[in-house]
Design brief:
The complex is a heterodimer of chains A (about 400) and B (about 90). Chain A has about 400 residues and is α/β, with parallel strands linked by helices. Chain A folds into two domains: about 5-255, Rossmann fold (3-Layer(aba) Sandwich); about 265-404, Rossmann fold (3-Layer(aba) Sandwich). Chain A is built from 14 helices and 17 strands. In chain A, helix 2 crosses helix 3 and helix 8 crosses helix 10 (about 225-255). Chain A is globular and about 70 Å long. Chain B is an alpha+beta fold. Chain B has a domain at about 25-85: Alpha-Beta Plaits, CATH 3.30.70.20. Chain B contains two helices and four strands, in the order βαββαβ. The N and C termini of chain B lie far apart (about 30 Å). Classes of the chains: A alpha/beta (about 400), B alpha+beta (about 90). The interface between A and B is medium-sized, with 21 and 12 residues. Chain A: Its EC number is 1.2.7.1. Chain A: Keywords: Oxidoreductase, Pyruvate. Chain A: This is Pyruvate synthase subunit PorA. Chain A: One of its GO terms (molecular function) is pyruvate synthase activity.
């Protein structure tokens, strides 16, 4: 992370995370916003509908719909017609969009959607974990995870820039931890309209719906060509690896704030133990790293910013010399007893010469607090792996035995 | 052919996908019973029933999937679903 807090101080305002996102979307000059309110995303779209009602976003229409399925379906049309299109959702709403998520990415429509990450039902739970967006990892959307309110705000502009690049043309989910980021008030530098205009060119797709020049979007593809569509989507994801880094670098040049491209690292250069995580938890981990470094423990943090495309090479470069890697996941693949970051990291090491043990912990589900002590205990478990090898690959943390 | 992003194409691409090959039963008119009411043409979900100059209709078997809606809806029972022969 590279930022000049002293310089930023005079521009900082204390706002709610959701307001910072809405304000960032406003600065990106969208043409169509369609969303259905769902906790904890609601404040974002409430603010946006107010902006539009007040005439603060010119040439923008807010489409009210009866469900999340319709919200994203409306954006399929608007984005295909060449309109910069935005939505926000979470949890059950995102799962209801599942079918349309594939349509958006398959039709190569660069819709941007903020996910205020939340647990999924049942049992019903409105608090934060990342099961909702992780469940959509194979839908062909770029997935970026933000650490704090400032990052999710800035990531919004980067998302439009990445997705709308003619070489990419993929939809982007920007993920923020529900409540922890969406409902927190903290000092933020809101995006400056003029700077964003310089950073983000207008959306002008080469192919779009136009009554004067009719086109067919999302047409039939039989077995002769369907594979090639998937291949081309994968190619676009491959190109996005570079584009995500470029977008972060260009953003730093203009705005002076940088949070990493595909990944970011903290004290990893000589680390024996590397903790991997996504989202707001990396802030807590940094505190733990500071605390343990002061005691002489060689521990570092690998923050994964881009989950799709998965930055295999960038991750390998960081973890190759570590003695143990620990993936912390706010999600679980039920039946495999593993979180996604753990599974994917482990899988990418197969058939390589990198021989580093990887263990996983599923943590903070359904909004359970993640105190510093929990991370410290996890580091203790990692130390055991260095001493005696892996005994347990992946496990739940902080289980309450009295409830079982 | 190269695929543009998203497979965007000019209208009319459906004409090359001759979906009639999936059919098991095919509809056949009994023109003696037909009263030219046009319901079959209106209700065909694949637009594979074409009007003729004499006011009757005919099936476009290149695209008819054999769903049988026309036969089901015909008020005069003028359409029979017949097993497709290879």
């Amino acid at each position: 992370m590279r930022r000049d807090y002293e310089k930023e101080k005079k521009d900082m305002v204390v706002v709610e995370g959701s307001y910072a996102v809405a304000s960032a979307v406003k600065a990106c000059r969208p043409n169509v916003i369609s969303a259905y309110p769902i906790t904890p995303q609601t404040h974002i779209v409430e603010e946006l509908s107010q902006f539009i009602a007040d005439g603060e976003i010119p040439n923008c229409e807010y489409v009210m719909v009866e469900s999340e399925f319709s919200a994203l379906s409306a954006l399929v049309g608007s984005s295909a017609a060449g309109a910069r299109s935005y939505s926000a959702t979470t949890s059950q709403g995102l799962e209801l969009m599942h079918e349309v998520l594939f349509n958006v990415s398959g039709m190569r429509l660069p819709v941007v959607m903020t996910i205020a990450n939340r647990a999924v039902s049942a049992p019903i739970n409105i608090w934060n974990d990342q099961q909702d967006s992780i469940s959509q990892r194979d839908t062909g959307w770029i997935q970026l995870y933000a650490e704090d309110t400032q990052e999710i705000s800035d990531m919004t502009a980067q998302a439009f820039k990445i997705g709308e690049d003619p070489d990419i043309l993929l939809p982007v989910m920007t993920c923020m931890d529900g409540f922890i980021l969406s409902h927190v008030y903290e000092p933020v530098v809101l995006l400056d309209d003029d700077l964003v205009a310089e950073y983000l060119p207008p959306f002008e797709p080469e192919l779009k719906l136009d009554p004067k020049n009719p086109k067919t979007f999302g047409a039939f593809a039989d077995p002769n060509s369907y594979t090639e569509f998937r291949y081309l989507q994968q190619q676009a994801m491959d190109k996005a690896l570079k584009k995500i880094e470029d977008a972060a670098d260009e953003f730093y040049d203009l705005f002076g704030r940088y949070y990493g491209g595909l990944i970011d690292t903290y004290e990893t250069d000589d680390a024996d133990i590397i903790l991997m995580a996504m989202g707001s938890i990396v802030g807590t981990i940094k505190d733990v790293v500071d605390k343990l470094r002061a005691k002489g423990v060689k521990v570092g943090l690998l923050k994964v910013r881009s989950f799709r495309p998965f930055p295999v090479e960038a991750i390998h470069n960081v973890i190759k010399d570590a003695k143990v890697v620990v993936a912390l996941d706010k999600n679980i693949s039920i039946g495999l007893n593993e979180g996604a970051l753990f599974t994917e990291t482990k899988a990418t090491l197969y058939n390589t010469k990198i021989d580093v043990p990887v263990i996983g912990f599923m943590i903070g589900q359904g909004g359970r607090d993640i105190p510093v002590e929990t991370i410290e205990n996890i580091v203790d478990e990692a130390k055991k792996v260095i001493d005696s090898g892996i005994t347990v690959e992946s496990q739940f943390t902080d289980l309450k035995e009295e409830l079982l | 052919m190269t695929i543009p992003p998203g497979g965007v194409c000019a209208p009319g691409s459906t004409l090359v996908n001759k979906t009639g090959g999936w059919r098991t039963f095919k509809p056949v008119y009994d023109y003696d019973k037909c009263i030219k009411c046009k319901l079959c043409e209106l209700l065909c979900p694949d637009a594979s029933i074409d009007p003729r100059d004499d006011g009757f209709f005919e099936f476009n078997y290149d695209f008819c999937k054999g769903c049988g809606i026309c036969a089901n809806e015909c008020p005069k029972g003028a359409i029979e679903m017949v097993l497709e022969e290879k």
